[in-house]
Amino acid sequence: MSVKDASVQKFYIWMAAAILTDQCSKIWIRLHLKEGDSLVVWKGVLEFVRYENSGMAFSLFQGYGRWFIPAAIIFVGIVLYLLYRGLLNSPLERVGAACLAGGAIGNAIDRTLFNQVTDFIHFYAKQGILNMADYAINIGILLFVLQMVLSFRRSRDR
């Protein structure tokens, strides 16, 4: 197996991990909590609160969840294009892209099946209720930012 094949394989493993973590956690929440119910995980820090969001982040565009499915498909297509063209050069870029694509797919699955996404992770110190797909997207963004900072520092040190 070539280095490129191995990196592509790792990309798919990370992407699948993001999708599976998201979907399994949402299934568990749907089976154990009714909408609006909560489960304290860590008192004063974290609770699971089931919320069905038919919009996007911060509950914007309620009722228009299906409009985001084509955007997710296009986004994942762009990520795959970049991957196969060899434009995701570092491990941080590939893992970040896998997290972004996995998160987009995870929420697109919900929107396709239910016309809404199941959100449930609520940290008391933060506003909003998120799901694992949202966190995968956030991690992906952070990894890209980290790669940009590292690249800038390396180019500056030359």
UniProtKB/TrEMBL annotation:
GO molecular function: aspartic-type endopeptidase activity
Keyword Cell membrane belongs to the record: yes
EC assignment: 3.4.23.36
Pathway: Protein modification; lipoprotein biosynthesis (signal peptide cleavage)
Protein location: Cell membrane
Main location group: membrane
Topology versus the membrane: Multi-pass membrane protein
Annotated keywords: Aspartyl protease, Cell membrane, Hydrolase, Membrane, Protease, Transmembrane, Transmembrane helix
EC category name: hydrolase
The keyword Cell membrane is assigned to this record: yes
Domain of life: Bacteria
One Pfam family per UniProt: Peptidase_A8
InterPro entries the UniProt entry points to: Peptidase_A8 (IPR001872)
List of catalytic residues: 119, 134
Segments traversing the membrane: 64-84, 135-152
HAMAP family in UniProt: LspA
Protein name as annotated: Lipoprotein signal peptidase
Species the sequence originates in: Paenibacillus hexagrammi
Organism lineage: Bacteria, Bacillati, Bacillota, Bacilli, Bacillales
